[in-house]
Amino acid sequence: MKKIVLLLGFILILFSAAKAQETLPLYPGTIPNSKNVPDPETLLERGENNRAYQNTAIPTLTVFLPKNPNGKAVVICPGGGYARTAFDKEGVLVAQSLNEDSITAFVLKYRIPQDLTNVDKSLAPLQDAQQAIRFARKNAAKYRLNPNKIGIMGFSAGGHLAASAATRFRKMADANELDTTSVRPDFVMLIYPVISFTEELAHKGSRKNLIGENPTQADILLCSPEMNVTADSPPTFLVHAADDQTVAVGNSLAYYEACVKNGVGAEMHLYPKGGHGFGLFNPKTPDVWMERLKNWLRTQ
């Protein structure tokens, strides 16, 4: 009971200390790779501070500014199996916690891949992640950021998106993009992430939603970030629970091993219990993984 009271108090402090400064359309004009159809987005209310969005077709970026920015920024990609985004639990609360450590945060409400609204649904989320990184870097002076300290963070399927951004930055997901601003994240944080789309490890729902029922082997390889880590990939922080029955811990292990193989700095924290989707606090351990993350970020 004492732990619950402390956690609730911590959350209340975060909400009072930092508020979303602004929510912006991710693209200033036409959304690339989109169809001209009515917006199908719906809001799921799951209780206080637990909003989620389904069928997002118009992506947004919500900016959270700390009182004294230290120059670092993190683009946050909430999870949801590429079917929805857990906007509060894996977005807003995380952004506010980062603000407590003077880190600027951008919560990305990325497009849900769907044929109804996207020309090529497999590219839409990555286009949005690259645009969010581009936006943070181009607006570094406005938000008092170091343009060389822009990272990306993702939970579950949002972790797949973040890992994709960390391994597919050499080529613009939008083939018509003329802006040459780098979309390479300077560091990446993957929390109980979907990584591999291989038959052995794939979270089948995420894979189906992004690349369809019957993907080709080429699609699977392209969309399995552990297969695309190189020496140029950014340093990585991973968190997972060994008893995760939704996204196998082997996903994090595969990405970590790929980092080690390619000489990429990586720190991983594995908990014996915790399941999937625990957000900021794993209820099965007194350890607070977010504090481990903040310690790691101080070295980036």
Give the topology:
Elements: H1 2-17, E1 20-25, E2 42-45, E3 51-54, E4 60-64, E5 73-77, E6 84-85, H2 88-99, E7 104-109, H3 124-138, E8 150-155, H4 157-167, E9 188-191, H5 204-211, H6 217-222, E10 236-241, H7 250-261, E11 266-271, H8 289-297
Parallel strand pairs: 5-7, 5-8, 8-9, 9-10, 10-11
Antiparallel strand pairs: 1-4, 2-3, 3-6, 4-7
Backbone structural class: alpha/beta
**Secondary structure tally, helices:** 8
CATH topological fold name? Rossmann fold
CATH architectural group: 3-Layer(aba) Sandwich
> What's the gyration radius in Å?
18 Å
Q: Strand order, biggest sheet?
A: 1-4-7-5-8-9-10-11
User: Uncertain spans, ≥5 residues at pLDDT below 50?
Assistant: 1-18
Order of helices and strands: HEEEEEEHEHEHEHHEHEH
Count of individual beta strands: 11
Helix proportion: 25-40%
Describe the structure.
This protein has 300 residues and is α/β, with parallel strands linked by helices. It has one domain (2-297): Alpha/Beta hydrolase fold, catalytic domain (Rossmann fold). The chain is built from 8 helices and 11 strands. It has helices spanning 2-17, 88-99, 124-138, 157-167, 204-211, 217-222, 250-261, 289-297, and strands at 20-25, 42-45, 51-54, 60-64, 73-77, 84-85, 104-109, 150-155, 188-191, 236-241, 266-271. It has an 8-stranded mixed β-sheet with strand order 1-4-7-5-8-9-10-11, with helices on both faces. The chain has a 3-stranded antiparallel β-sheet with strand order 2-3-6. Helix 4 (157-167) links the parallel strand 8 (150-155) and strand 9 (188-191). Helix 1 crosses helix 2 (88-99) and helix 3 packs across helix 4 (157-167).
